[in-house]
Amino acid sequence: MRFRRSDSRVRSEEKKWRPCARRGPSRRGVFAAALILWVGASLAVWPQQAPSQRPQPQPRGEEAGDVVALTSELVVLDVTVVDRRNHVVADLEKDRFVVYENGVRQEIAFFSREEAPVSLGLVLDTSGSMRRKLSRVIAAAKSLMRQSHPEDEYFLVAFKGEAELLEDFTQDVALIHEALDNLIASGQTALLDAIYLSVEHAQKHGKHRRKAIVIITDGEERNSYYTREQVLERLRGSDVQVYAVGFTEGLGEAAIFRQTESRRLGGQEKKARKLLEELARESGGRAFFPQSLDELDTIATTIARELRTQYAIGYYPSHPERDGSWRTVRVEVLSDKERGPLTARTRAGYYALKKGAPAKSPSR
């Protein structure tokens, strides 16, 4: 499958999938197609509105770890808690959390800290500027999969001048490994297109409620159809978390200036970092900016641990109107004498459903 920009940027807002014959009987290989564009669309995330009766959600059995019986009015947040050293804290009880929507405290109706499977997209920059880093990036992606939940499913996207879906959602890690081993770095960087289309793919086709993408890039943007604002808006209309690894050091500088011990961030590097940090913050994920390739294994371990040890916190909004408005969300954690101040990370908010819009069923 191939994510492609429209041939006409002016004429069409819609892209269609174009099927391509497979190279073999397995799911290996590249499928060429174009993806539907809904440029600037305001997509509501589930779930927001409360009817007159509120059935209590029950956790799924341990065989899968997903949350089930989540009614369409329940807002569920995936929350990561870290201490002042950025170490994950995974043993807190419900009474340690306080949730606010639009500044108003909400009553927590559902709480779980079980490990849950994730629908995870690996989104790798294979542009020419990543050539020397690619082998280590591939090794880090494999390390991440080794440390994940046994029920996780994956898809793989490589991007340069355009974003390409090399392997669709699968639990067969061998297929992802094979596609990773065939990656070649060349060309320019359609970073924003890759993020937009990968978030959309995870949201639409991931079978687990918890969804995420891990993007590894040098942060350079040269060839995208989508804008930063469109990417952020698409992310806000989804429940996909973004973990970004940015090798942005020295971006836009001449090579002679890149090795100095003390330096200021250039304009291009600042822009790249700001984008990746914004994506992570809006989605409740995290951005990393390694100084060397040696940090990749540690980062992969950190991401795997965070994805495994998140809390699921649900509440029925005290403002249940279906007005299509943006609702800001904040989660606080009561301080801990032994560990000191704790920080909770979750998505920045969600869009309420509009009146008359069909309720969206939560993912399995």
Structural write-up:
The chain has 364 residues and is an alpha+beta fold. The protein folds into 2 domains: 70-113 and 310-351, no CATH class; 116-308, von Willebrand factor, type A domain (Rossmann fold), CATH 3.40.50. It is built from 6 helices and 17 strands. It has helices at 134-146, 173-181, 191-205, 228-236, 267-283, 296-308, and strands at residues 2-3, 58-59, 67-68, 75-82, 97-101, 104-106, 108-112, 119-125, 153-159, 163-170, 211-217, 240-246, 286-288, 311-315, 326-333, 343-345, 349-351. The strands form 4 sheets. It has a 7-stranded mixed β-sheet with strand order 1-10-9-8-11-12-13, with helices on both faces. It has a 4-stranded antiparallel β-sheet with strand order 7-14-4-16, with no helix packed on it. A 4-stranded antiparallel β-sheet has the order 6-5-15-17, with no helix packed on it. Strand 11 (211-217), helix 4 (228-236) and strand 12 (240-246) form a beta-alpha-beta unit. Helix 1 (134-146) packs parallel to helix 6 (296-308), helix 3 (191-205) packs parallel to helix 4 and helix 4 (228-236) runs parallel beside helix 5.
Keywords:
364 residues, alpha+beta, Rossmann fold, four-stranded antiparallel β-sheet, 6 helices, 21% helix
**CATH structural fold name of the largest domain:** Rossmann fold
Which CATH architecture of the largest domain? Answer: 3-Layer(aba) Sandwich
Mean pLDDT: 80
Estimate percent helicity: 10-25%
Quickly give the structural class: alpha+beta
* SSE series: EEEEEEEEHEEHHEHEHEHEEEE
Number of helices: 6
Question: How do the strands of the widest beta sheet line up side by side?
Answer: 1-10-9-8-11-12-13
Number of domains: 2
Radius of gyration: 20 Å
CATH homology superfamily name of the largest domain: von Willebrand factor, type A domain
The total of beta strands comes to 17
- Main CATH class of the largest domain: Alpha Beta
Described by the principal axes of the CA atoms, the overall outline is: globular
**Uncertain stretches:** 5-70, 253-263
Q: Largest sheet, if any?
A: 7 strands, mixed
* Distance between the amino and carboxyl termini: 25 Å
